[in-house]
Amino acid sequence: MALAFLFFSILLLMSEFVFFKTKKDILSPVFIYFSIFALSALVFAINFYNWNMPFGADTMFILLFGIAMFGVGSLIGYFTIKRSDSGRLKIEKYPEESVNYKVKEINIGTRTTLIISEIIVITDIWAILDSYRISILAGNGRGPLHMLPYVRSVTLYSTANLETPLLLKQLKYISLAFAFFYILVLAYDVFYLRKKIKLIYLLPPLCETVQMVLTTGRIIFLRVIIFLLIISAIMYRKRFGWNKKVIKNFLKYAILGGAIFFVIFRLAGALTGKSSKFNFYDNICLYLGGSLPAFDDYLHNFHSTNTEFGAETFINLQRILYKLHLADKYHNSALEWMSVYGMSYNTYTALRRYFHDFGYPGLALLQAFMGFFYTRFYLFVSRKEKGLLGLLIYGFIFYPVILSFDDDLFFISVLSTATITQIFYLICIYWFFIGRKQETPELLKRLGGKIKIFRNRRTTDA
To answer: What is the pTM of this model?
Structure first.
């Protein structure tokens, strides 16, 4: 138990150091990353005797090493290389100025919103029918109301081809993209423009809820909450600044969002039969802290059968190679099962996959890359971006930072053909409703001005 509390204490000190070093920026990826691991460590330490799971010094060292490397990558992200007036390269801190958004009020017609909602509802119905078909293949003989556990067993733990129609897949991607886009529009109206909420804009996200339930997972609901919290906080700070009162209010909303998620978490678990063994408290604690003793168990007791290069990390690359007939097989994203406090568990923090596949060098490199990528992206959308596209994408792919305490979702989920396709649809939707009306004309105007200057220079030189 002493090591568990020592682990928590070190992570807490790391979080406090980053908090003051970033000038109390609670939205910085590195602060969020350190803090969520500290929370996970605290939950594990509190339940140490109940779970009766060991936690060795070597486990603590590997975890701290990997977490610290995220911080190293983040530190690098706060600096940029520029060319000085003399032509030499020099390293400078990323500019701290904050540029206001140039996007005016976003108006989407009621008829357009209703048509989009109808498309999502049609997709919902088709998705329900397809999920029922899959559940029958998995052995469901109890009817549509009992299909979710069967669907989950096939979609998550099987490499079988489910033969989902291509059109249905694309409609699902488009529906999800519309739902997140409308959440962005709602947040922009409320938190940046300070206008009343337009209830009609809630319709597409509410219609998308059906497909979220059909995923049989809980992560998609957490993604929505994370997306809303992150983009709203960045918008609000960019417009009105950042002070103690605002930080306290944001933390209240974050706690409220977490509470809402855990209620959904419990309900979703009940639908799929995952939450029937435990009460609400144990369920939450196992989710938040169970990955740490699981990682220790992996280090000392597991002998994984995944021995190929990147077998656990680069699963999506394996799938692509398999579809191109360049590989004989690919592994499922689900890892081996173990038992924590009588509950089957197969998440070992994101660090397990990196450490298993590449050892210390790969763990350091991948964690540093993650820290650099998210920090640099965050600095751009929070300080320099004039439009909203970067913020939309940043919020859409931010969830791996928070969920790293549980499992890797960056290489497994973000760097997948599904997410890349969804981002493509997000870009198209954004351009259609915002970019072509407000940003493209300004861009063409600026481009025309530069061409005019270039022509004048050529005339002068001649």
So the answer is: 0.89
Strand ranges in 53-173 using DSSP code E only, listed in sequence order: 79-83, 89-93
Chain-centre distance of CA 347, in angstroms? 16
- Kindly report the number of other CB atoms within 10 A of residue 9's CB atom: 14
Higher pLDDT, 424 or 266: 424
CA atoms within 13 A on the CB side of 126: 16
Task: Tell me the pairing of strands 343-345 and 338-340.
Answer: antiparallel
Q: What is the mean pLDDT of the chain?
A: 85
Which residues have CB under 8 Å from 408's CB, separation 6+? 313, 350, 353, 354, 400
Report the DSSP beta bridge partners of residue 91: 81
Between CA 284 and CA 279 the distance in angstroms is 9
**Residue 277 tokens, joined:** 């063994």
Q: Burial level of 339, CB count in 10 A (0-12/13-18/19+)?
A: exposed
User: Which residue type occupies 450?
Assistant: K
Domain ranges of the chain: 2-94+291-378
Per-residue pLDDT tens digits for 91-138: 777 777 778 888 888 899 999 999 999 999 999 999 999 999 888 888
DSSP bridge pairs for 83: 89
Q: What is the pLDDT of residue 82?
A: 66
User: What is the chain's percent helix, strand, coil content, to nearest 5?
Assistant: 70, 5, 25
